[in-house]
Amino acid sequence: FGTRLVVDEAFHLRPDVAGNVANADANKNICVIGTASGAWTFATGGGVTATTGGGASDQQCLRGQTGANQGIWSNTNWATGDQVRYKCNLRTSAAITSQIIAAGLKLSLVAGATLFDNATNADQAYFGYATDNRYGVNATDFIAVIRIGGASFNVTTNVVVAVSTNYRLVLDVDSARLARFYINGVLRATSTALTAANLLPFAGIEGVAAARALTVQRLCCSKVLA
């Protein structure tokens, strides 16, 4: 046995609505939060594809199932001091305008207008892409969205988001709580020490007054065993 707890989701079952654990075909580990007009379907290339509705700020976001005692994703403390390692394989769609893509670790995950905002959580570390430039750095690139004790330290990864492209995102928090952001195996940004906090793994998309799609091929999170 190794010294890390590893949870890995390759989506053998389709994610269901948060708390809807009565559905026999639901994924009991991973669920969906967002707007009811969106949809999740299996992707022929692997994983699941989220498609938002066409309204402003329509969202689809994967997170740990919120039903009581449903899966390790929500019932494990992903503490910044536990050397958390987040991995996510994403594939963009044929349209990358008018949208926000976000994947990583946040202090809280509640559907609504501020789900992927820069300053909703006092502590967070995630990959963000926002064509409305809400992260204040560069609207064409993946951004290392970093917030520590209420202060933002967002930096560009200098990776331009392209259509119909696969991205392997890794967020590695070391024993000093420094978060390192890797895209396709290349280190793109490093934070200063994160606050001691329990964060939540997630991945999602928001359409800005347009239906937009994102495929999540794999979601994985691990930590040093306490």
Description of the structure:
- With 226 residues, the protein is mostly beta strands.
- 0% of the residues lie in helices and 51% in strands.
- The strands form 2 sheets. Strands 2, 3, 6, 7, 9, 10, 11, 12, 13 and 17 form a 10-stranded mixed sheet that branches.
- A hairpin with a 2-residue loop joins strand 11 (141-148) and strand 12.
- It is globular.
- The relative contact order is 0.26.
How would the blueprint of this fold be written?
Blueprint: E1 4-9, E2 16-17, E3 30-34, E4 39-42, E5 48-51, E6 56-64, E7 78-79, E8 85-92, E9 99-106, E10 124-130, E11 141-148, E12 151-152, E13 155-160, E14 166-173, E15 178-183, E16 186-193, E17 198-208, E18 213-224
Parallel strand pairs: 2-3
Antiparallel strand pairs: 1-18, 3-6, 4-5, 5-18, 6-17, 7-17, 8-14, 8-18, 9-10, 9-17, 10-11, 11-12, 11-13, 14-15, 15-16
Helix count, DSSP H or I runs of 4 or more residues? 0
Helix coverage percent: under 10%
- Overall mean pLDDT: 92
Q: What is the gyration radius calculated from CA atoms? A: 16 Å
What does this entry show, briefly?
This protein is mainly beta and 226 residues long. It is built from no helices and 18 strands.
